[in-house]
Amino acid sequence: MVFNMIAALRRKTQSEDAKRLIKNFISLSVVQGLNYILPLITIPYITRVLGAENFGLVGIAAAFMTYFSIFTDYGFNLSATKEISINRDHKEKVSEIFSSVMLVKSVLCIIGFFIMLVIILNVGMFKADFLVYLVSYGTVIGNVLFPIWFFQGIERMKYITYLNIFSRGIVTILIFILVKNKGDLIIYVTLNSLSAVAIGMVSLILVLWKFGIRIHIPSLKNIKSQMIEGWYVFISSISIVLYTSSTTLLLGLFTGKAMAGYYAGADKIRVAVQGLVTPVFQTVYPHVNKLAQESWQKALGFIKKELIIFGVAGFIVSLMIIVKSDFIVRMFLGKGYDQSVPVLRILAFTPLMVLFGNIVTVQCLLSLGLKKEYSRIYIAT
Q1: Cα gap 75→79, rounded to integer Å
Q2: d(CA 82, CA 85)
Q3: pLDDT tens column, 30-58
Q4: Which of 3, 83, 122, 192 lies at a 20 to 30 A Cα distance from 32?
């Protein structure tokens, strides 16, 4: 009798976990889909209105801001997600983690802003377009304010879905209304920054109001603990930026804005495709951490299924991109972006490689607590 009750309770728990996973996946898919689909709606318009050179400048500015986003994230998007996931049932502990992470991110954001100011005021390439880079820093501020790591950790993403739909939708409409020619470049950059800040502020209010998280001054011990937890992920993230966002920045530096625009156009398409699997990673990462706490064999079995399903799907999508690259570039970027076609073909298998990389490194190594090994692999490659 007792064993039957235990078995029934276990089945109920597994069923609830499965339902939570599905709900989080749907919510994240909507959010992530909007992050990539809405820009894909505006890209065909923006590439034609702004032209390759201005579009290249936008890409260079976005790539430059990526460094500061990584700097302010400090690996918390993975390390804090794990900490929140493990301690989700202890509200006081979650409040401590939240307060420590937000304080560190805020301080890093201020430091990053002054570093950016020094660079754009003294380096010719950046000084010429000072205002574009200054306004673009709003995306970094928005990233700091938006605690996606908290929502992932507690596996409750549905609360920010509607917020993203509303905000992204409004910005998309405003882009078509306000951005009419090359002279409206600053308007376009401002709209993107304001959208990021607005989403961040409202989601932060939601965390405090809906989940009862108390903000307090964390102890030095808690701050130090969070910084140690995030350090190896932070170093790895810097390594990743060196072979991703740096490409657009280096192209702008050595070949000019137009060439950077051709690359940025192809890379936007690659990022959109890659974004299709991002909700999967964000949904299952806290779940895998939870499984690993119970039994590594359970976590490993779950990961093996992921590799097979998404590996096959990713390979098929990559082949389709190679075959249809001419059509894809013409449809999304326009006739003036023919030089983006060979770039897109080269990048076609990148989403598949990133998919495998995430599963076997982030989900496996970090769930096992192998932070040093995770960091060394990324630095070495």
Answers
A1: 6
A2: 5
A3: 655 566 566 667 778 888 888 888 888 98
A4: 83
Q: φ and ψ at 325, to 5 degrees?
A: -60, -40
| Ramachandran area for residue 74 (φ above 0: left; ψ -120 to 50: alpha; else beta) | left
* Helix orientation angle between 2-73 and 245-255, rounded to the nearest 10 degrees: 20
Angstrom distance (rounded) from CA 181 to CA 270: 26
19 pLDDT band, cuts 50/70/90, is low
CA dist 11 and 318 (Å) reads 38
Phi-psi region for residue 252, left (φ > 0), alpha (ψ -120 to 50) or beta? alpha
What is the number of other CB atoms lying within 10 angstroms of the CB of residue 69?
21
pLDDT 10s digits, 320-372: 999 999 999 988 887 788 889 999 999 999 888 888 888 888 777 877 778 78
- The tens digit of pLDDT for each residue in 312-326 reads 888 998 999 999 999
Q: Which two tokens stand for residue 252?
A: 């702008």
